[in-house]
Amino acid sequence: MNYTEEVRELLKKINPGEAEYHQAAFEFLDSIQPVIEAHEEEYRSVCLLERLLEPERSISFRVPWVDDNGQVRVNRGYRIQFNSALGPYKGGLRFHPTVNGNTMRFLAFEQTFKNALTGQAIGGGKGGSNFNPKGKSEREIMAFCQSFMTELYKYIGPDEDVPAGDIGVGSREIGYMFGQYKRLTNQMHGALSGKGLASGGSLVRTEATGYGLLYICEEMLKAAGKTVEGKNVVVSGSGNVAIYAVEKAEQMGAKVLTVSDSNGYIYDPNGIRVDVVKEIKEVRRARIKEYADMVPGSTYVDGKKVWEVPCDVALPCAIQNEMDLEDAKTLVANGCFAIAEGSNMPITREATIYLQEQGLLFMPSKAANAGGVAVSALEMAQNSARKRRSFERVDADLHRIMENIYAQVALAAEKYGHAGDFVMGANIAGFRRVAKAMREQGWV
Ligand code: NDP
Ligand code: 2IT
């Protein structure tokens, strides 16, 4: 058995049944095989991969809170501090009923290499809870966030671990958690990112993931002699990432045909009206089907996924494994030629392989959605320096970071003889940066 095969067997043994973590880790191990081959004995002798695949620390805790009926409820909270070779742990918090140790580990693992690709001094982490924010009152959300932070605050700080948002956690939840953090620690510093502007947040953080996705998508298309302008684009989801992906795609001259939520999707042949989506999701926190009542000519399709709508470019922006092989075949049959992943690991492994074999331009999530965490790191820097940067300046930095990520990913793929394979390029480029720091820091 070669070294990556040995490590794969070990991972299955010590993390049994963790399908998503296996999916993320096995793709990574497949991708970095050429680098490992060149250094096999050296890496094996210091257990580099075994250390890389074992989180530095996994915290799980009880989150008790009281609902509006006076009933005590209990959820489980998590923070996985995966790797601090490059800087303080950094990554979002997800509040969603599907959250468990396996999803947290896969997300924290992916985050480690994504953060490395940004070129900033941030390690990888992720956290969250199986709490379901849907249908909860404002008071219940605040009560939950305060209880969650009452335990989490012991493990975070601006030089230690800096959480941010993810599914079910936006600036409202970050605000409540930040308020409780300050109350418990008496510290007003950047222990969380994605804060509101009045609380020390950064301009462009709200837009960053979606805008960054389009900046790197444009780079990928440009290298193939194409542009986003004039293309038909299909977007899934209607949350933070999806909304600002739609906004930037339209600013770039594309037509976005869809948005969705977990109930169904909207098809708008005239182009999605992002102001209407913002009103439904950011202001009223309602379901996406209401769009069809508000915008003449659009239709709501219940219980289906957006991938059945013919398009040139597909941007998954909802959740992991939201596209399977059948969906991928439909997309290709309908003429789609490019995909950039806004959500983390949105496409199953077999569908990813199929799409790459079909020759699609394919930018994986750890490169494509790194704009959010990149601007989080800019927020950390602004907080430390007690400075604020203008929208234009942060947006220009984001643009430059995404161009750099594209260049690194394309170069790494080419260097190892797989030009155009951005999955391999992203894994190799991220791995090399983390591995270098880990080797410098000894057997820790
Ligand atoms: P939000 O909570 O703002 O939005 C999530 C969206 O996805 C909602 O519209 C939700 O609909 C939809 N969704 C969830 N599950 C499904 C499903 N099974 N099928 C269809 N739609 C679904 O989260 P974000 O926009 O912040 O995050 C989206 C993705 O992007 C996640 O994978 C996240 O990890 C990733 N990401 C986020 C970053 C950020 O800065 N926020 C940065 C990088 C990546 P519903 O309301 O029905 O649940
Ligand atoms: O998946 C992600 O990169 C995020 N949810 C953003 C993390 C962050 O720290 O801004």
Molecular structure report:
The chain is of the alpha/beta class and 444 residues long. It contains 16 helices and 12 strands. It has helices at 3-14, 19-45, 48-53, 101-117, 138-152, 171-185, 205-223, 240-251, 274-283, 290-294, 325-333, 349-357, 365-368, 371-385, 391-415, 422-440; strands at residues 57-66, 72-83, 89-95, 123-129, 161-164, 232-235, 255-261, 264-267, 299-302, 313-315, 338-340, 361-363. Strands 9-8-7-6-10-11-12 form a 7-stranded mixed sheet, sandwiched between helices. A hairpin with a 2-residue loop joins β7 (255-261) and β8 (264-267). The longest helix is centred in the N-terminal third of the chain and has 27 residues, at 19-45. It starts with a helix and ends with a helix. The relative contact order is 0.13. It binds NADPH dihydro-nicotinamide-adenine-dinucleotide phosphate and (2Z)-2-iminopentanedioic acid. Residues 165-168, 209, 236-242, 260-263, 317-319, 322, 342-344, 369, 372 line the site of NADPH dihydro-nicotinamide-adenine-dinucleotide phosphate.
Fill in the keyword field for this structure.
alpha/beta; seven-stranded mixed beta sheet; 12 strands; binds (2Z)-2-iminopentanedioic acid; binds NADPH dihydro-nicotinamide-adenine-dinucleotide phosphate
